[in-house]
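Standup notes, structure subgroup. Blocker cleared on the zinc ion input:
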Amino acid sequence: MSQRIECSRRQCRWTGRESELSEVLDPKYAAEALTVYNRVCPKCGCESYYQLPEPIITERVEHANALIKVLSEHGRKFFEHKGALATLELDKNGKVWVIDECSKARVYTHYRGQWSGFNHGGTLRDLVCAMRDYITKGTLIPIGWIAPNRSNPENGDIWGYGKEAAAAVRAAAAQLPIITQGEQA
Ligand SMILES: [Zn+2]
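Run returned:
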């Protein structure tokens, strides 16, 4: 697999593989009728990027990403964008990052301020933080966090998944190791 990279432009921070970079004609050589291509960030067109180490995927990271997959397969398909899913990963210092499925930015989940590049609101940010704590400490997530409906069961869930999809996503999530077992969905 080709080198993993991150766009150096702070507002972009696209994360991917060197092979995914776009090739654009370098206008500097147009006068000489030479076709010289530059490799640029496919999101912002920036020519400079950093090399990134491979993500560390532990069993708990896999469990967290399995929850993301379940959420993406139901209702409004949270954490899915044009076939891509958000992914969680660990770095060598034991810190958890989430790659946003929409911006492809690698977001530091231990940061208390605004998460630049994270395309979701507070509810899903809280859920990512819960997944982070599972990865770092093993803290299980209560099933009540998945498409919560307790405040108003008649109107469905606060995620807007709709009654049937909310029940289905809870049932699927309840099977996962990251979710507290023995509680009714
Ligand atoms: Zn970029």
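Discussed briefly. Residues 59-173 form one domain.
Next: hand off to the docking folks.
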